[in-house]
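Subject: mismatched residue count in predicted assembly?

I count 540 residues in my input, but I want to confirm that the predicted structure covers every chain. Input:
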Amino acid sequence: MYSEKVMDHFTNPRNVGEIENPSGVGTVGNAKCGDIMRMYLNIDENGVIKEAKFKTFGCGAAVATSSMATELVAGKTVEEALEVTNKAVMEALDGLPPVKVHCSLLAEEAIHAALWDYAVKNGIEIEGLEKPVTDIGEKEEAPVEEY
Amino acid sequence: MSRLIYLDNAATTQVYPEVLDAMKPYFTEYYGNPSSVYSFAGEANREVLKSRESIAAALGAKTEEIYFTGGGSESDNWALKATAEAYGNKGKHIITTKIEHHAILHTAEYLEKKGFEVTYLDVDENGVVKLDELKAAIRPDTILISVMTANNEIGTIQPIAEIGKIAKENGVLFHTDAVQAFGHIPINVDEMNIDMLSASGHKINGPKGIGIMYIRKGVKILSFIHGGAQERQRRAGTHNVPGIVGFGKAIQLATEELDSRIKYETELRDYLIDRVLNEIPYVRLNGHRTDRLPNNANFCFRFIEGESLLILLDEKGICGSSGSACTSGSLDPSHVLLAIGLPHEIAHGSLRLTLSEKTTKEDIDYTVDELKKIIERLRSMSPLYEDFLKQSK
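Triage response: the counts match. Full output below for your records.
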């Protein structure tokens, strides 16, 4: 069901944990839907992400996308991190099953939420960053059964 | 994977070697069509009858009340749709429960679209149908009550005899989906006033693709599959002779060993439940503590999600399930767990382990030991657990 990379990032997730006094932290998702991601970022004075960590409640894909997202944003500037889209996360994981695509959206949203927190704390504006939707209650319509 | 611990016997079971041996000649040797006239087909015909007799005996039914089908889902579909068709002029109301298998629920929803009214009964926190609510739901136009014998996810056994009595007193037909229960716990169609019953071969160490429907003599439902005179003109299609023979052998073995297997599995199940409840924090048992299938344990672990748990168990060679295998394609948590009153976030963290008579205490010890580590690991990654720990400080 999952690619080798997804399995690798799920069973050996990178950067799991918390950062004390992070530059920015964001939590997105919804326990009702079964996925919650929290991303912690440490950002230096030049706006470079020095460290990214995560905690995730969710399926294998949710953990793997969180793990990959932290790897992709680490070392990048804040502006570059904004370019880490859900598509980039999915591609880096060699794809996701269709029903799990929303996990990659959640990962992108988690990065944005942490960056938003960083921007608010520091009174700065990051071009292209909009206030994230923290409570993603993925309201995917169940496919209507045909009789 | 060196070790395989199969704890998903509610999904399907191993075909026993004795069952396979019984089936084999009917593929290559006695491959005749039992409906044929020549004597070569006679052997197949006799074996079909023998199997029918074994199944009837296990249910306390008459041989001619057993109809072979393609499986439990077909039987469930047949029971509901054909009853609606045959008795629709008497009334258009059907009563079932919120925790049925989707073969019942989706068929009931289909019938709603065709103008039938369906009452979906609530269950209590253990998953047991409330008899007073059942009584209250019966109307003059109620034609059918369909309540499963035992639930496939949480294992709760329903008060089938009481439900049958209520149905009979009110002149309403009673169907029970016994797919998980047949061959696992005693069932008697007369003592329990059951009019129709669905069962399946592959849940009792028989082959897949073979099921039965018991239809009490006098129940006037018609054919669901048209095209031949098989099964007393009620179910067309060439008999699946090897499947039927395998099902017959499987129920024969299951019946012979029923008491000892119930005892063995119940003890092992209780050992599993006790260890998990005592050794893992923030866990609950789903389903009735004692009125449950001998081989079923179902837990919810707070702060973690079921699929992650299944993948990590699989890494250790342990096969379990979260919700039923049929629901795993959906993102929603199990309708059964929601029906017993669990909030979504807790329902997501469910694990069903279903044993067999071949499961050993060592298997259970290994499973619980690995489970403890996996739960701890997933919780250490969970933001919900982090928040919980901070709040409880």
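The first helix of chain B runs from residue 17 to 23. Marking this ticket as 'not a bug'.
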